[in-house]
Amino acid sequence: MKQPIEEKFNTLTHYLSTITPLGDEAISLAKTYFIFKSFDERIDIISAGDKVKNICFISSGLVRFYYLTENGKDFNKSFASQGEIISSISSLITDEASPFFVETLLPTECFCISYDDFVLLTESHVEWNRLAMKLLEFLALKKEKREADFLLLSAQKRYEGFLYELAHLEKKIPNYHIASYLGITEVALSRIRKRLGLTLVNDEKVE
Question: Is pTM beyond 0.85 here?
Answer without folding.
Answer: yes
